[in-house]
């Protein structure tokens, strides 16, 4: 008998015991189990799980009637409204692939993406109609355009589509038998990642990965059917970290939010009893800006999941003082959103505030559905010792890693070299197994032959009571090659000059790590809240060449960004890999 034959003989894989995994099946379950429970809230609009399923199936039917089938791309340029939430189910139900595009992209980039993914239909919120019309004109071929006409939109442009969203839903038949998914490896979504150093990459998600990451979100964050999730995270960003599918999996309630503004967030939390929300650290900063009286009046026990750089310690302390909890996670567009989580240990609660903040800043351990995490030498793939100091590249492996880059075989092969996803992030592993990101490989500053992690300097600056936000990049230097240049955003009502901040950094950092230049002003950010470091690098380079009009630290330091940086994101729209 050959090896394993005993358990292979007469035990066939069949429809009864093997079904392809897809997150769209969560919609059927919630509609069957909790048909009248509210699934979706948007202002006064409330949709039950039964009604949501009916609308999604009708829309899927309409999409099929317009030629969408297996592998057909449906693009969307939309805000966080119920329409984009519904498209996360309707498009894969039709067999198609959803490409939710960053709403802050320029027309040329949108046109490139529509052509690259061979989009057949484009849904457009009327706020973005003008730029979408420009993109379609540049496309040079026909594409069906469907308007999303949101009455809450304050900047509605003229409609450009052949019909609006509701008319398309009415075209479909919710009772139509939709084709079953045959292969869980089929694509479910497409997300475009950073194009700041070349053409954007189209990250392809499969049904299996989306299913598993949606479940992982629920397990990692202990979500139940009683959760009320506020959409402070863009749905176009990693498909909202898969949370549309997660909310369907647990039968919770999703509260849509068109614009992420302090007043809108606070009002939604108070009105709907929000229990969970996600976003970049800037979302926490916005909530903190509402003031202690407002925070004290809100529901306690709100859970906040943040990614990218950890929020400033002062913000974490202010938020948690009101009974909220902050969970730090890590992931990439290439990993469906968060796949690592800073699992909090009960014994850490006894540490002092500074120690707790340092522990909370770590990216943590693998989530439930990620198979493995490794910090290793990027050339040899040999693991680094877990000693809190040996820096290596962070590698991921698991079913919730992307299918690959669309039409970019070489990039896909490079990303998966050695059987791991190469993240490009530099990290250390602590003796307890928890991982801490030290920097992006491209963000490391090499000054006089010494490697300097920008995150270490940023964390030091964030601890200063006057600093609301900080970002550090390399500035060319004729003697040292490059030196740290800090861009600082002060808290409202606070003041500090460059020399004072540099003096503070000297008390907490090795001297060679202390920034030699400080520039004050609002930090340029992407639509997902990430600081646009490529903009800052250009500013630092121009500053070093004496062309930007920005002053160094040994002047008064009271400088501000040029007006051109307000347009930088429009000219160079990013979708950051690490969120």
Task: Give the SSE map.
Blueprint: H1 25-33, E1 38-42, E2 45-48, H2 49-65, E3 73-77, H3 82-94, E4 97-100, H4 107-116, E5 119-125, H5 129-139, E6 144-148, E7 163-164, H6 165-171, E8 187-193, E9 201-206, H7 207-221, E10 228-230, H8 238-241, H9 243-250, E11 253-255, H10 262-272, E12 276-279, H11 281-288, H12 292-297, E13 303-306, H13 313-320, E14 325-332, E15 337-341, H14 353-360, E16 365-366, E17 370-376, E18 392-398, E19 404-405, H15 409-415, E20 421-429, E21 435-440, E22 445-447, E23 450-452, H16 454-462, E24 467-477, E25 481-490, H17 498-508, E26 517-520, H18 533-544, H19 568-571
Parallel strand pairs: 1-11, 3-4, 3-5, 4-8, 5-6, 6-7, 10-11, 10-12, 12-13, 13-14, 25-26
Antiparallel strand pairs: 1-2, 8-9, 9-19, 14-15, 15-16, 17-18, 18-20, 20-21, 22-23, 24-25
Helix pairs in contact: 1-2, 1-9, 2-3, 2-6, 4-5, 7-9, 11-13
Question: What would your notes on this structure say?
Answer:
This protein is an alpha/beta fold and 579 residues long. It folds into 3 domains: 159 residues, Rossmann fold (3-Layer(aba) Sandwich); 162 residues, Rossmann fold; 126 residues, ANL, C-terminal domain (GMP Synthetase, Chain A, domain 3), CATH 3.30.300. Helix content is 31%, strand content 23%. A 9-stranded mixed sheet has the order 2-1-11-10-12-13-14-15-16, sandwiched between helices. The chain has an 8-stranded mixed sheet with strand order 7-6-5-3-4-8-9-19, with helices on both faces. Helix 1 packs parallel to helix 9 and helix 7 crosses helix 9. It is globular, with a radius of gyration of 24 Å. The N and C termini lie far apart (51 Å). The C terminus is likely disordered.
């Amino acid at each position: 008998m050959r090896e394993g034959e005993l358990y292979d003989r007469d035990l066939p894989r069949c429809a009864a015991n093997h079904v392809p995994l897809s997150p769209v099946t969560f919609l059927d379950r919630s509609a069957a189990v909790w048909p009248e429970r509210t699934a979706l809230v948007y202002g006064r609009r409330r949709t039950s799980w039964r009604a949501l399923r009916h609308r999604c199936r009708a829309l899927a039917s309409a999409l099929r009637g317009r030629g969408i089938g297996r592998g057909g791309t449906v693009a969307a340029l939309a805000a966080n409204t119920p329409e984009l939430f519904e498209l996360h189910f309707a498009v894969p139900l039709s067999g198609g692939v959803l490409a939710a595009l960053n709403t802050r992209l320029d027309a040329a980039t949108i046109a490139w993406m529509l052509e690259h993914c061979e989009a057949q239909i484009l849904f457009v919120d009327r706020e973005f109609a003008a730029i979408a019309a420009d993109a379609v004109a540049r496309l040079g071929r026909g594409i069906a355009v469907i308007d999303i006409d949101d009455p809450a939109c304050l900047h509605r442009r003229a409609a450009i589509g052949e019909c609006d969203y509701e008319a398309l839903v009415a075209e479909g038949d919710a009772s139509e038998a939709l084709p079953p998914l045959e292969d869980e490896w089929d694509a479910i979504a497409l997300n475009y990642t950073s194009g700041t150093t070349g053409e954007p990459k189209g990250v392809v998600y499969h049904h299996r990965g989306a299913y598993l990451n949606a479940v992982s979100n629920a397990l990692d964050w202990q979500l139940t059917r009683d959760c009320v999730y506020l959409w402070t995270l863009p749905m176009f960003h990693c498909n909202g970290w898969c949370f549309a599918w997660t909310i369907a999996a647990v039968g919770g309630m999703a509260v849509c939010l068109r614009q992420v503004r302090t007043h809108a967030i606070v009002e939604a939390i108070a009105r709907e009893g929000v229990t969970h929300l996600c976003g970049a650290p800037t979302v926490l900063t916005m909530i903190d800006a509402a003031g202690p009286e407002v925070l004290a009046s809100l529901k306690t026990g709100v859970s906040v999941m943040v990614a990218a750089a950890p929020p400033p310690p002062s913000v974490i302390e202010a938020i948690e003082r009101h009974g909220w909890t902050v969970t730090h996670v890590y992931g990439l567009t290439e990993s469906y959103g968060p796949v690592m989580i800073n699992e909090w240990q009960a014994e850490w609660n006894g540490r002092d505030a500074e120690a707790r903040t340092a522990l909370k800043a770590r990216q943590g351990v693998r989530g439930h559905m990620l198979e493995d995490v490794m910090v290793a030498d990027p050339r040899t793939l040999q693991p680094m010792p877990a000693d809190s100091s040996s820096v290596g590249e962070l590698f991921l492996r698991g079913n919730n890693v992307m299918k690959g880059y669309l039409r970019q075989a070489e990039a896909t092969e490079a990303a998966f070299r050695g059987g791991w996803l190469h993240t490009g992030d530099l990290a250390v592993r602590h003796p307890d197994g928890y991982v801490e990101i030290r920097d992006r490989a491209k963000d490391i500053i090499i000054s006089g032959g010494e490697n300097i992690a920008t995150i270490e300097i940023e964390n030091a600056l964030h601890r200063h009571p006057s600093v609301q936000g900080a970002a550090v990049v390399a500035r060319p230097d004729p003697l040292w090659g490059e030196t740290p240049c800090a861009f600082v955003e002060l808290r409202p009502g606070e003041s500090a000059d460059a020399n004072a901040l540099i003096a503070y950094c000297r008390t907490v950092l090795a001297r060679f790590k202390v920034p030699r230049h400080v520039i004050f002003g609002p930090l340029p950010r992407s639509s997902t809240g990430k600081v646009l470091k490529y903009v800052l690098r250009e500013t630092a380079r121009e500053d070093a060449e004496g062309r930007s009009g920005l002053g160094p630290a040994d002047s008064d330091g009271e400088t501000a960004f040029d007006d051109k940086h307000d347009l930088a994101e429009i000219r160079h729209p990013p979708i950051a890999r690490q969120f």
